[in-house]
Each structure stands twice: as C-alpha cells, then as structure tokens.
Specification:
Elements (H helix, E strand, L loop, with lengths): L5 E2 L6 E8 H19 L3 E6 L3 H9 L3 E5 L6 H12 L6 H24 L5 E5 L4 E2 L5 H8 L3 E5 L2 E9 L4 H17 L5 H10 L4 E2 L14 H8 L3 E2 L4 H4 L12
Parallel strand pairs: 2-3, 2-5, 3-4, 7-9
Antiparallel strand pairs: 1-4, 5-8, 6-10, 7-8
C-alpha cells in the first residue's frame, strides 16, 4: 500500500505536491488548483488515494501530473487489531478506528511518496488540499522559502499544511519516508507525520512565520477572519473550516 504507487513522478525542478483521497479531491482540489496556479505559478503534482477513473481522467485532461495508489487490498482488519492492542482501544467500533487509521495513512502517504521519488535537483512545496493560496508571494518571500526546508511552527509542532523540502536535505527526506513506513507497518500511530517531521527537521529548517505565511488558529470572530485573510495561504484549523461551502467547482477550472 505504501510503495505500490502508479503513475509518473514529475521532472519539474520546482513544483507543489498535494495528496488526498477521492472525497477531498472532489471537494477541494478545484479551489486548490485555481488559487495556487494563480498566485504561485508553479506546476502542481497530485497524488490521489483510492481515485475513481473519472478523477484520473480529469487530471489527464487538465495536463496535471499525477500518481495514485489504492488501499482496497490492504489488511485493515489486522491493522485495526494491532492498533487496539497497542492503545487499549476497546470503546470504539472497528469502523471508527479504521477511519482514524485511513486518515493517518492519507496524511502520511504524501511524505512516503515524496521521499521515495524526489531527486537532488528538485525543490518541492507540500500543501494540504483544503488549504488555498490568497496572495502572491514577494520575491523576498520566495527566496526565503526556497533557501532551505521550511515549516510553520505551531504548538511546538512543524505543520505540514504548507511547507517546503529542499534538495540539500534529501537524506532527511528519504529518512522521513522510511521512518513513517517502518512505524506504520508495525503499528499505526496517529499524528505519525508530525512526529517524524519534528524528529528530522525541527532544527535544520526555515521558520515560516505564523500569521504571515499561514495561520493555524480556528476562526471564531471577525478579527480571526481578517487575520487569516492577511496570510499567503488560508487554512482554518479544525472542522469549522472544512464544513464551509467551497464555491470553486470543476467547471471553474476545466
């Protein structure tokens, strides 16, 4: 499931990598693609988990490079059982636990694919599909971003919502992939992507200032809305942001 990736990795020197399942792809990708294409003017590579034939056809028609993988043949029954045993989790039904683990896999798989395929001549931005670009970065901001691997720090965590991986740290990027796969093969750990990022990149990285590049707080007041709208990238923490209507649809980009 981790290494059975179909499709061609892009050859661009700089590009944006986005990864998600079919549900998130259909809901958020049109907005993601439209806003990042407008404000960043970089190629986008999409990695889709459990895609439909229609989704793959759409990416091909739009000439967007893409890879994909399937989880349908994975042994979720034993994976759920191992997680229950390690975490003494007996109060939740199997389907709920499986959904947690599936979401964990979706969060981690982009870094697995990145570590397995990135070359020493590539510089890759990774972004969540439910985030979107609001403003065009200045030349100085781009220089800062591409100077090193770069993350926003929030609550002592390196956030993967919008970040950059520099080829000078390709060894760590390869390690990121192997650490995640080794651990999830033994037993899933929720938040595994952030654990691995912190272990490998907490010291050797650029800090994308919280509130300038992206803001990870929930939006509860008009002041929060204004603060979010000043950031280069918008992402509203928690379910509140995900439950909002997404007005950009496929017909807006096709």
């Amino acid at each position: 499931m981790f290494d059975q990736v179909i499709g061609e990795w892009p050859t661009h020197k700089r590009f944006i990598l986005v990864s998600c399942d079919e549900i998130y792809f259909n809901r958020y990708f049109p907005r993601f693609y439209k806003t990042f294409t407008e404000h960043w003017q970089l190629p986008i590579h999409a990695h889709i988990i459990d895609p439909s034939k229609e989704s793959l056809a759409r990416l091909t028609a739009l000439d967007i490079s893409h890879t994909w993988c399937y989880t349908t043949d994975y042994d979720w029954v034993n994976t759920v059982a191992r997680f229950r045993k390690e975490n003494n989790s007996t109060q939740h039904p199997n389907e709920a636990v499986k959904q947690w683990l599936y979401e964990c896999y979706c969060q981690c798989q982009r870094f697995v694919v990145l570590g397995a395929n990135m070359t020493n001549k590539q510089s890759v931005i990774v972004a969540d599909v439910d985030a979107y670009a609001q403003h065009t970065p200045t030349k100085k901001q781009k220089q800062l971003l591409f100077s090193c691997s770069a993350f926003t720090e929030y609550n002592n965590r390196l956030m993967a919502t919008f970040c950059h991986f520099h080829p000078d740290q390709l060894i760590q990027i390869r390690q990121l992939s192997s650490i995640i796969v080794d651990q999830l093969t033994k037993c899933f750990i929720l938040g595994m992507d952030q654990r691995a990022l912190k272990e490998l990149f907490m010291t050797a990285r650029v800090d994308l200032k919280h509130g300038e590049w992206i803001r990870h707080y929930d939006v509860k007041t008009p002041e929060d809305v204004k603060a979010h709208q000043r950031c280069l990238v918008y992402h509203e923490k928690g379910l509140r942001g995900k439950m909002k209507d997404v007005t950009t649809a496929w017909e807006n980009i096709e």
